[in-house]
Amino acid sequence: MVRLLYAGAVSACFELENDSPYYAPQAYEVFLNGEFCFERDTNVFSLFSLKPDTAYVLCVKQGDEKKELSFHTAAERCAVSVLSFGAVGDGVHDDTDAIQSAIHFLPDGARLHFPAGTYMTRPLALRSHITLDFAEGAVLLGCPDRSRYPILPGTVCDLNGGEEIMVGTFEGLTRPMYQSLLHGEYCEDITITGLGAVDGNAQNSDFWTAFKHFETARPRLVFLCNCKNVTLHGVTMRNSASWTLHPFYSERVSMYDVAVEAPKDSPNTDAIDPEACIGVQIIGCRLSVGDDCVAIKSGKLELSRQRLQCAQDHVIRNCLMQYGHGAVTLGSETACGVRDLTVTRCLFRATDRGLRIKTRRGRGKNCDITGITFENIRMESVITPVVINMWYNCCDPDRFSDYVKCREALPVDDRTPHLGEFTFKDIVCRNVHAAACYIDGLPESPIDQVNFSNVSMTFDPQAKPFVPAMQNDAVPRLKMGLYFNNVRSVCIDQVTIEGAHGDVLITPNCGDVQAQGLREVRG
Fold first, then answer.
1. HEC secondary structure over 420-483
2. Arithmetic mean of pLDDT over the chain
3. Rounded CA gap, 350 and 379, in Å?
4. Among 198, 230, 277, 360, fewest CB within 10 Å belongs to which?
5. Cut 0.70: pTM above it
6. What is the rounded distance in angstroms from the CA atom of residue 273 to the CA atom of residue 296?
């Protein structure tokens, strides 16, 4: 019924075991050592203000069922208040020096505690073996003055052998960037936890209003470059200057019960963008931003030549994603490839697209995306639930070139991407607008296989036309059925489409098409 996801020194996270996306089938009560804590209705919940190195007994009561679970919190070296280093926490005083001194000078295994208050700060450098613990009511607030943000180079040269060391990046390339508010480079064993918030304060700066004129990439809220064993738990992340959480060439990064927030119209405020990472877990998170909620990336072609590392072994589970351009996106920067991703038990609300894969000619031969499974997902008022687009035309200088938009088969070469097997099963979509799915492969490199099993999609009676995929010469669609183009194998098994206009299954330039149990319901 319930299992432990994570136990730190002062917090723990748990997950109910059921088949219900994000919300539990019914509300439940949580007790700790026999004392009532709270009532919840989500599949993931957390406990805070625990004691280090202590045994606890958790009890969850749901209806007539009761489950007990014993767990033990982690030990820690020491815990120190940031106020002891001179932080003020009044939202006006610059607390950067106090916080940075505490991070640098505390011993390994220490926890830096932020009591309730607002801590105005410039960018902070993280280090290994440290925990940042934000109490309820504690806010780490970014300085709104862009001139106070250091500029980091994209790479630096090793004087011993000439090797390029990665430092800064944005949108799939190593490039100069403003230092991020919480910035980790080549660190390990970092925890950021608590009921407080990290607020980029971008709405009070020019990061959102003048970014098109910047020569330097905007900072992220949290940037983790070549880091290992990082845990984010419980904290609210909001109002980032650009992408919010950006692990880059990092391993074993876990995000539990985290909230990421930004206005719907904020520019490029992706919630979570793991890039060329291994072993990322995103579980029980609530994401509502101005761009993609989760975007799995692995760089552009130049980055793959610098260091080839596939994005792999990621799990996204029991998350709520709202209002973004895409709920879960792969790409478009995927030159190192993506494999072995599972997205399950998630709820998407009012995103432009639900499950979105985007790539294009020029991402390269190592852009191999395969082993992708989306299962047990519910979508509400998502404009187009499933999009696989190999003609993505955004963000690159050659976006409108003949090479990108030519619809004839071009020679397969070192620039040609490949998409393998994709599985969509146990999915319910209500109030769809543009298309049930829009899957568009390249003629010279068709998508290998797409499987739809036990899927139900119903169009909104008041649906409005919308362009399903960002590509040259795109045409708005309205209540379009299942569209597959340039796919080698299409397997449809027990799929219901209600309220579509025209043919419910459209398969130009496809190879083997099997449709068993395809049910059409006219509105």
1. CEEEEEEEEEEEECCEEEEEECCCCCCEEEEEEEEEEEEECCCCCCECCCCECCCCCECCEEEE
2. 97
3. 8
4. 230
5. yes
6. 6
